[in-house]
Amino acid sequence: MSLSAATLLLPAPDAAWRVWKPRASTSAEVVDSPSQASHLAKPLIIGLPASACRTIGLILPQTESDLLEQIIVTQLERRGFKLEQDAAGKNYRWHLLGNLGGQAIVSVDLLAEPFPAALAAAHASDYTAALRLAQFPAGHVIIIEEQGDLVLAASHHGKLYHSHIFTQAPATEEALALEITLARLSLESDLGTDSITGVALIGANFDRGLMTRLSSVLDLPVRIVAELPPNTALDTRTWSKMLPAGIRAAQTASVRRGKLTRALVLGGMLYVSLAFLAFAYLHFQEQRAAKLAAEIEVTSEPAAAVRKANERWKVLAPAIEPKRYPLFLLAEINRIMPGSGIVIRDFEVKSNEIDIKGEARDAQLAFQFIEDFKKNRILSRYEWTNPRPEVKGTTAIFRAQGKLP
After folding, report:
1. Around Cβ 299, how many Cβ atoms within 10 Å?
2. What pLDDT does 317 receive?
3. Measured by CB atoms within 10 angstroms of the end CB, which terminus of the chain is less buried, N or C?
4. Eight-state DSSP code of residue 176
């Protein structure tokens, strides 16, 4: 689905919400909260302010989509975020923005926990970060006011990469200059030197004198932009559902009620028809038994071929199991590595075996590191052998070998 076919609900600088109708170039309506927008046509996508939806930029190893998501989940859980998902959707969604030097540039939207009850709208088709829907000026850090909060955001090739609230509006010039400087240093360490070419102040509350003074302090061109219009060319068809827990539960309950109603109606119809069908069913079963006997005779040989093919697929199962991919195993090892004192020098995966060579600060740390393998939910599947580390000076050289039973 393209955004040009959806109704958007986006936060205004004040506490209100702006309604963007499909294919509209300007906002034509304002409502006080998402719950008051039930009259809007579906599909309705609600763009959340940074106070209700965090956006985090990550630079990760370039790999296939499934493994990349596992790495993203690991990174977010390490930062203390609680991730949830069920059949109705998730409380997070990640976007692959591109690649840089063999690494993937990823931006993750994560709903606030607990999610503000005032923003829960059961009629919403999807939620996202409001700035995810906007057209960004290329290479610019932007400062925008969202419902009383000042938000700093940056993009990669015009797509939202990172955003965070840094103060309430209005902010002093010194606070703006300091926040932009710190953000520029951090972003250029991720996206590359000279990836930030300017600053855009979004909204009517910034004066041109501030623009000139900031440009002089930051040594970057600064401009004022009235507003960021939605990017109507954005394609959301590949997006997974990102919904708060309450709305996911309501939608799941609604689906269950629908299934139960249909089951009750069908049960009533079957009950009425049962008397009529009883005699016909017996006659049908006799005919069917004769027909099945003939079909079994005809299909016995193809069935044997299918069973043989199934056994071959079982033999291939170890080669297509994601939890045995080298990158996945390396990610698990990285999760249990201490903050310092361990260096992996060689990591090799062959069929059902893992061979790890490295150096530790001392022999005890090396032993503990291998013991942690046996407690890990993935690595504990292997039977580990670890010869006594060889101590050279202040370094213990160790080797660990794991083999699937």
Report:
1. 12
2. 56
3. C
4. H
Which residue in 105, 97, 109 sits closest to 45, CA to CA?
109
For residues 180 and 164, the answer to whether their CB atoms sit within 8 Å is: no
d(CA 364, CA 354): 22
Rounded CA-CA distance 48/111 in Å is: 9
Given the structure tokens 């990017």, which residue do they identify?
A: 231
Rg for the chain (alpha carbons), in Å? 29
Question: How many residues in the chain?
Answer: 405
Per residue in 151-185, pLDDT (tens digit) is: 999 999 889 999 999 999 889 999 999 999 999 99
pLDDT (0 to 100) of residue 61: 93
Question: Position 270: which residue type?
Answer: L
Contact assessment for residue 348 and residue 354, using Cβ atoms and an 8 Å cutoff = yes
In the block, residue with structure tokens 């005032």: 118
Q: Which of 121, 377, 360 is nearest to 400 (CA)?
A: 360
Alpha helices (runs of H) in 234-392, residue ranges in sequence order:
245-316, 326-336, 363-373
Residue 219 DSSP one-character state: T
Examine the pLDDT at 268 and tell me if it is beyond 60.
yes
pLDDT in tens, 75-133: 999 999 999 888 888 999 999 999 988 899 999 999 998 888 888 888 888 899 999 98
Residue 170, C-beta contacts closer than 8 angstroms, at least 6 positions apart: 150, 205
Q: What residues form DSSP beta bridges with 110?
A: 54, 92
Helix residue ranges per DSSP H, 317-381: 326-336, 363-373
pTM here is: 0.60
